[in-house]
Amino acid sequence: MRKFPLFVIISFVLGYPLFSESSTFFREESPHYRVYSDDSSSSAREISQKMEACLRLYNGILHLDLSSLKVKLKVRIFKEKSSFDSYLVSLINQTRDDFVYIHYTDLEKSELVGFEKANSAEFDSSLLHQGFIQFIKAMIPNSPIWLREGIAAYVENSKYNSSTSSFVWRPNLVWLDSLKSIINTKDKFIPLDKLLIMNKQEALKNISLFYPEAWGIVQYLSNTGEKKYNRIFWDSISALDAGATVDENSNYVLKKAFSWVDKNTLHNDFISYIKSLKTFTDYIKEGIDFYSKGDINHAEESFKHAVRIEPDNHIPYYYMGLISYARKKYGDAEIFYKKALKLGTESGLINYALGVNAFAANKFDDAVVYLKKAKETDKKTYGAKVDTLLKRIELLR
Predict the structure, then answer these.
(1) What does each C-alpha distance from 72 to 101, 106, 109, 252 come to in angstroms?
(2) What band does 12 get if pLDDT is binned at 50, 70 and 90?
C-alpha cells in the first residue's frame, strides 16, 4: 500500500535544536547545502552531492532565480532509524516513518531530517520528495498546496546517475491506479477548480483523494503533448509570489494560468489522458498477451514502454530476448538475456535460453557451456531438456 507523504512540519520555535552539531556529526558544505551525517565524512559528502543534483532537477522544472537563496539549506541524515527517532522526539516530541522537513520561521534553522535505508532507491525517493518541499519552501514559502505536493510526488521516482552526479527524471506512476479509481467513482473526484485553491487543512481532510489528483495534474500539465496545457504549468510557476500567502498564490495561479481555458474541456482532457496511461505491470501483461498470440511487433512495443518506466527491471529484457530469438537475431537475443540475468532473472531460465539461442546460432561450444549451467542450477526443470539438446549437438559436430 502506497503511503501518503507527510506535509511539512511547521515550527515557530526560535531556538536551535538540542543536538550538538559539532561533536556528533560530520559536516559537508556544497554551494547550496549544509549536510550533517552521524555516519562519516564521506557519507556527508555523498549526500551533499545528491542534494545538489536534486536542486538541479527541481530548478530544471521551476526555473527560479537561485540568487534569492541567501542561506544554505540544512540536511541531517542519521545512520540508524533509532537515532532519527530520538532526534525528532527532541524537536517535536514525536517521530515519523519516513523523512521529514521541519520548517522554522528562521530558514537557516530549518532542516530536512532522514535516515539511511538498505534500499538506495527508497532512500533517494524520500530525499527527492522532502528535498523538494524544503526547496520550494525556501524559494516560495507559500506556494499552492497542490503544486508543492504534486511536484514532490512527480519527481520522487527520478534515478541517480553517480557517474554524472545527476538525477534523471522518470515517471512516478504509483498513484495512477488510485487516481483511475477516483475518476471511476465520480462523486469522489475533487473538481480541479477546487483542488487548485485547497489549503493544507482541506487537503489533509481529503488526503486519499488529494495526493493522487495533485500528482495527476502535475503529470498531465508537464507531459501532455498539448502545448496549451504545458503553458498552464509554466504560467502557474510564473504567477507565484515569494511574499504572498498560500491563498493569494493559489488565486494568482487560478486567475493567471487557468482562467483562459474552459474548465470542462480541461477536465475532460485530463481524464482522457489519465485513463490512457499505463503502469509497468499493465505494459508487461499487455506484452505477454501479445507475445502469446504471436504478435511480436506489438509485444515489443509494450516491453519497450515497460523499460522506459522501470529500466532496471529484468522482466521486459527477458521477453525482448525471446522476441529477438524469434526474429533469428541471435546476437541481440544474447544481449537482452544477459541484461535480464544481470538484473535478476532466474539463472537456470536465462542460461537455458542462452544455450538454445547459441545452438540456433550454431555456436555449439557456447551452447554446451550455457546448457550445463542451466542443468547445474535447476536439474529438475532443465535436466532432461539439456540432455536432449546436448545429444543433438554431439550429432551435429
Answers:
(1) 15, 12, 10, 29
(2) very low
Grid cell, residue 215, equals: 500528482
d(CA 105, CA 141): 10
What is the average per-residue pLDDT within 286-295?
Answer: 98
Are 99 and 84 in contact, with CB atoms under 8 Å apart?
no
pLDDT at 2 over 70: no
- 125-174 pLDDT, tens digit each: 999 999 999 999 999 999 999 999 999 999 999 999 999 999 999 999 99
Q: Are 246 and 142 in contact (CB under 8 A)?
A: yes
| Stretch among 7-11, 18-22, 112-116, 387-391 having the lowest mean pLDDT | 18-22
Q: Does residue 21 have a pLDDT over 60?
A: no
The b/e string for 212-238 (b: 16+ C-beta within 10 A; e otherwise) is bbbbbbbbbbbebeeeebeebbeebbe
With 0-12 CB in 10 A as exposed, 13-18 as middle and 19+ as buried, what is 18?
exposed
Identify the bridge partners of residue 159 per DSSP, sorted by sequence position. Answer: 168
Please, which pLDDT band fits residue 24 given cuts at 50, 70 and 90?
Answer: confident
